[in-house]
From TrEMBL:
Name under which the protein is recorded: Peroxisomal bifunctional enzyme
Subunit structure comment from the entry: Monomer.
Domain 3-hydroxyacyl-CoA dehydrogenase C-terminal: 439-540, 577-672
Highest rank taxon of the organism: Eukaryota
GO biological process: fatty acid beta-oxidation
Recorded name of the encoding gene: EHHADH
GO cellular-component term (any): peroxisome
Record-linked PANTHER family: 3-HYDROXYACYL-COA DEHYROGENASE, PEROXISOMAL BIFUNCTIONAL ENZYME
Keyword terms of this UniProt record: Fatty acid metabolism, Isomerase, Lipid metabolism, Lyase, Multifunctional enzyme, NAD, Oxidoreductase, Peroxisome
Classification via SUPFAM superfamilies: 6-phosphogluconate dehydrogenase C-terminal domain-like (SSF48179), ClpP/crotonase (SSF52096), NAD(P)-binding Rossmann-fold domains (SSF51735)
Reactions catalysed: a (3Z)-enoyl-CoA = a 4-saturated (2E)-enoyl-CoA; (3E,5Z)-tetradecadienoyl-CoA = (2E,5Z)-tetradecadienoyl-CoA; a (3E)-enoyl-CoA = a 4-saturated (2E)-enoyl-CoA; (3S)-hydroxydecanoyl-CoA = (2E)-decenoyl-CoA + H2O
Keyword Membrane on entry: no
Organism whose genome encodes this protein: Salmo trutta (Brown trout)
InterPro entries per UniProt: 3-OHacyl-CoA_DH_CS, 3-OHacyl-CoA_DH_NAD-bd, 3HC_DH_C, 6-PGluconate_DH-like_C_sf, ClpP/crotonase-like_dom_sf, Enoyl-CoA_hydra/iso, NAD(P)-bd_dom_sf
Biochemical pathway: Lipid metabolism; fatty acid beta-oxidation
Length: 682
């Protein structure tokens, strides 16, 4: 027979009981079948362990039964049924697991054996073969060669201990490891751990166990003491910290209730809108996709279902995607619970859409804008319920990129923020709640970074030099390669709207009282918009080309520009490139914390890691500042702040105060900022 018991907690224990060797008699088989059924039916049971009474797992089929007529449940289907159950089943092997006993263990999902256990398939010695699946499962577990040896001789084995075994390797192991190493180096962009993993496995393949262990210890010690491990562990926690959002009003994730959205609409089916439709539909939400331009609508109706299909297939979704209906009529959104406006980044157009939405949507509908930096309050002001308006800033491609900035204004209700954050979570995004200001967090910090990159070109650097320094740091793409990919006209349009460039604006290097580089505007004026035109800071094989090559035209363009403005090119080191670009960005991060636009450094770091390609093994810009040393950042900002007309390099008050307070670790900044605020020091 077999005894069934449920251990405290969730494990069911099935103990074979048939002294002296727990042979699989008809009664034992029946007992196993019944016990497995019980374990499956018991909702409290989440896993099953099979063991044998009296220190013996099982001596195999009951040899005595072979002589008579078969009775009781047959062994083969019984083992099949065990293998098929969806709760994990483990065999705990003590003493012997022989013949049908080992075959029973092979049908379990896991096997764990005592060091003195003896395992074997001795059927051959009884004129049989391992006919309860042993001849089929064992070679799949231990390979054909070892299985041949065990099954044809019937010789039992001691329970193996992995440290005593050689590492099975393909004949060309060195070339395999070299190939993997170069792939890993390329992919990891300076991360140490993936490289160390390959080194450890090389040791397993080439060294005796003890030496392999020594190598593993050495590698682990290096990783443990590296800043990268600390950065990655910090990134792990910051991802979780941002989920526990809080607003200056005191509303937070644990005192606000989110609405569950089942019907949503997206307005505008350009690149962003299409991605957002797919992201929503993948969560099972029914989406009304609205586009008023006929041509764009026709293209989206063709492209979006294919995108959805592809992504659903890639994610092997259990739930079928939500239904998408396409429309050219804004009136069709009247029944949805939430709208995401994703029209062109133009305030007057967005205002027009919001006014229209306010008139067609049911009262209580949440209205969200996928703006990358425009004023959410201004949009909220044209609706009847400003509390129901938030920004949902997606990143392209919206159905792939993890980051979502959820932008709240002073009038956004906790419910609206909670719903947007919850929706982001359903879409698999890392949502970060941020305050309303031009560019929010991500793009506000990007501005001084881009600005410094342009200044560096004026002063003598090439786009390649700048990009190489940033890529060496760990960004997947340097700033100029990235601009070419996203299109130089995006920033051009924003600068035109801000009155910084365009007809009637004088082509000087100081605008609106600040140092300004007209280089990117001039590139656009020359029709060099990036990959889409086949030419930007680099040249490509043609419009839409992806492979960037340096372009002598750009070198001549920069030389001419410098000559026109009386600038003398100087040699610029990668260190200066990093300091100027990254410290300007970090400094803006401190300003953002000071202004309470981000709740803490983790929010900024999550935004940069998940949305802007900041290398995860460097934690994020604010964490990096702590690693470099706040004093050092302050000193270098002071050094580079030689141009009083470059305010982004002027060290932020918060940075100064942190340095004055002895540079507390990044985990303490939130508390520090709150205290400073209470004492009106910020
Ligand atoms: C459709 C698929 C059908 C079949 C596939 C499966 C086939 C099989 O499983 S065939 C059986 C394979 N198993 C064996 O060949 C193991 C045989 N037994 C042993 O090798 C040893 O008994 C032992 C290592 C398990 C224990 O050794 P030890 O402690 O020295 O005790 P004994 O050998 O004296 O045995 C004690 C006692 O138990 C009886 N016994 C042992 N194994 C079986 C068995 N499989 N079936 C029935 N009875 C078994 C043994 O005869 C002794 O009995 P007595 O005390 O009455 O003599």
């Amino acid at each position: 027979m077999a005894r069934y018991s449920r251990l405290p907690g969730s494990v069911a224990l099935i103990t074979l009981h048939n002294p002296p060797v727990n042979a699989l008699s008809a009664a034992v088989r029946q007992g196993i079948v019944d016990a497995v059924q019980r374990a499956l039916k018991d909702p409290k049971v989440t896993s099953v362990v099979i063991c044998g009474q009296n220190g013996k797992f099982c001596g195999g089929a009951d040899i005595r039964e072979f002589a008579g007529p078969m009775s009781g449940p047959p062994l083969v289907p019984m083992i099949h049924a065990i293998e098929a159950v969806d709760k994990p089943v483990a065999a705990a092997i003590e003493g012997v697991a022989l013949g049908g006993g080992l075959e029973l263990a092979l049908g379990c999902h896991y096997r764990i054996a005592h060091s003195k256990a003896v395992l074997g398939l001795p059927e051959v010695t009884l004129g049989l073969l391992p006919g309860a699946g042993g001849s089929q499962r064992l070679p799949r577990l231990i390979g054909l060669t070892a299985a041949l040896d065990l099954i044809t001789t019937g010789q039992p084995l001691d329970s193996r201990r992995l440290s005593t075994l050689p590492c099975p390797c393909p004949p060309d192991v060195d070339s395999l490891l070299d190939k993997v190493m170069s792939k890993v180096r390329q992919r990891s962009r300076g991360a140490l751990a993936p490289v160390a993993c390959v080194q450890a496995l090389r040791a397993a393949a080439s060294l005796p166990y003890a030496q392999g262990m020594e190598k593993e210890r050495e590698l682990m010690a290096t990783l443990f003491n590296s800043g990268q491990a600390r950065a990655l562990q910090y990134a792990f926690f910051s991802q979780r910290v941002v989920g526990k959002w809080s607003l200056p009003s005191g509303a937070s994730w644990d005192n606000s209730t989110a609405r569950t959205i089942s019907k949503a609409a997206v307005i505008g089916l350009g690149t962003m809108g299409r991605g957002i439709v797919v992201a929503l539909a993948l969560t099972g939400i029914s989406v009304v996709a609205v586009e008023t331009q006929e041509k764009q609508l026709a293209e989206a109706s063709r492209v979006v279902p294919a995108m959805l299909q592809r992504e659903a297939g890639r994610r092997r979704l259990a739930t079928p995607p939500g239904v998408i209906s396409f429309s050219s009529n804004l009136q069709d959104v009247s029944e949805v619970e939430l709208v995401i406006e994703a029209v062109f980044e133009d305030m007057s157009l967005k205002l027009q859409v919001f006014k229209h939405l306010a008139s067609v949507c049911r009262p209580g509908t949440l209205l969200c804008s996928n703006t990358s930096g425009l004023d959410i309050d201004q949009l909220a002001a044209v609706t009847q319920s400003p509390g129901l308006v938030v920004g949902m800033h997606f990143f392209a491609p919206a159905h792939v990129m993890k980051l979502l900035e959820v932008v709240y204004g002073p009038r956004s209700s906790p419910e609206a923020v909670a719903t947007a954050m919850q929706l982001g979570k359903r879409m698999g995004k890392v949502g970060v709640a941020v305050g309303n200001c031009p560019g929010f967090v991500g793009n506000r910090m990007l501005k001084p970074y881009l600005e410094q990159a342009n200044f560096l070109l004026e002063e003598g650097a090439t786009p390649q030099q700048v990009d190489e320094a940033l890529e060496e740091f760990g960004f997947p793409m340097g700033v100029f390669r990235m601009s070419d990919l996203s299109g130089l006209d995006v920033g051009w349009r924003i600068r035109k709207e801000a009155g910084l460039t365009g007809p009637g604006v004088e082509s000087t290097r100081t605008r609106q009282g600040r140092r300004y580089s007209p280089l990117p505007d001039q590139m656009c004026e020359a029709g060099r918009l990036g990959q889409k035109t086949g030419k930007g800071w680099y040249q490509y094989d043609g419009p839409g080309g992806r492979v960037a090559r340096s372009d002598p035209w750009v070198d001549i363009f920069l030389e001419t520009y410098r000559a026109e403005h009386g600038l003398v090119a100087r040699s610029i080191t990668p260190e200066e490139i990093l300091e100027r670009c990254l410290y300007a960005l970090i400094n803006e991060g401190f300003n953002i914390l000071q202004d309470a636009v981000a709740a803490g450094p983790e929010d900024i770091d999550a935004i940069y890691v998940f949305g802007y390609g900041w290398p995860r093994h460097r934690g994020g810009p604010m964490f990096h500042a702590g690693q470099v040393g706040l004093g050092r950042i302050l000193e270098r900002l002071n050094h580079h702040h030689s141009h009083p007309d470059v305010p982004h390099l002027k060290p932020s008050t918060l940075l100064r105060r942190l340095v004055a307070a002895g540079s507390p670790p990044v985990q303490k900044w939130r508390e520090f900022i709150n205290k400073e605020r209470v004492h009106s020091q910020l």
